[in-house]
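[09:14] KT: can someone run the structure on this one? pasting the chain below
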Amino acid sequence: MTCFDIFNPLTVFIFFACVIVAGIFTMNPVISLISLAGALAFRLALPVKKDKKIHIWTVLMTIACMVFNPVFGHIGSTVIVVINNHNVTVEAALYGLFLGIMLSGAVYWFASFSAIMTSDKITYILGFVSRKAALVVTMALRFIPMYIRKARQMSTDQKALGLYKDETIVSRLRGTMRVFSGLLSYMIEKTIITSDSMSARGYSGRRRRNYSLYPFARRDALFLAFSLVFAACAVYATAKNALFYNFYPYMDKISTQPLAMLGYIGYGLLCICPSVTEGGNRLKWRCLRSKISHSDIRLPIR
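[09:31] RB: done, structure tokens below
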């Protein structure tokens, strides 16, 4: 369980939207490095099963971008080598490098997003857009695995009865069509029963109220406010072209103007905010556990 499980899903979704959108649409080396560092720190801070393959794939993706971008893009002033009258430039290689860093940061953010946001939370967020769409998605998430299990069960029953033989293609097709026919009848029957059951429970009523498992508390308001303020700093600096960086034909210098520094600091605080929240919560839990384990518990003497 992560500390983000206590937050409202809408708050968490807005945070991820801010940090991912701001990192993708700002092709600035500093922003890309901040995004990758914040995403990697948050990924390591999450108490979930660590997949080491994601690190290998992100490194390979970064190397591929750095290698293949100079092959297809020959713009730049600093030539490394000439291959078949095509210039391989430093600017193209560095552009591919920071492009890979930006994409790697986005991959880590999406990996953390998938670890936190479950199907129930996605359905809850979708309910703000359309309740009917949320209901359809919920039913699809339930029915699709159920129909797959039912199809496997029917196939096993057919094989047990000796009606499903996979010796030839014709017998295999006959068995598959028999399973499909039975599954289709089961789907129609299940749909009618579900429709009647939902109508009896008042789903067709106009004044029906929805119960939510995720209340919007004060902590959600504070976290949402911090996220929007930090994201607004980066967006404002981007809108004023303070974070604009050009790789071709000459690489620009990293801007140190006050407005650019505001964008760097704002986006940095936005990226480090979840790691600090998660790390602080885990540190607090360890301190509480240590106090419990070292406390002198005395039983009453009877």
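[09:33] KT: thanks! The chain is about 70% helix and 5% strand.
[09:34] RB: yep, looked fine to me
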